[in-house]
Amino acid sequence: MFVIFLLLALALARPVHAYADPGTGTMLYQVVMAAIIGGVFQFRKLASFFRRRRNPKK
């Protein structure tokens, strides 16, 4: 359903006269970098959890 909506939105696109302030790119960059760094941190934490569970200390 989302794909159909996306295709329709792209097919029926009209020119817009809009303005994006200069800080928008910086904000998007910050959000993407935070998501990547947070994802790496979470992956390492999860991998560590499974390693400890597989090889418990005696």
Number of helices: 2
Shape: elongated
Specify the structural class.
mainly alpha
Total E-strand runs: 0
Distance, first to last CA? 52 Å
Q: Strand count, sense and closure of the main sheet?
A: none
Q: Radius of gyration, Cα only, in angstroms? A: 21 Å
Question: Can you write the helix and strand succession as a string?
Answer: HH
- Residue windows where pLDDT falls under 50 for at least 5 positions: none
Summarize the structure.
With 58 residues, the chain is an all-alpha fold.
SSE layout and pairing:
Elements: H1 2-11, H2 23-54
Question: What does this protein look like?
Answer:
- With 58 residues, the chain is mostly helical.
- The chain has a domain of 38 residues.
- Helices cover 72% and strands 0% of the residues.
- It is built from 2 helices and no strands.
- The longest helix has 32 residues.
- The protein is elongated.
Provide the descriptors you would attach to this structure in a database record.
mainly alpha, 2 helices, 58 residues
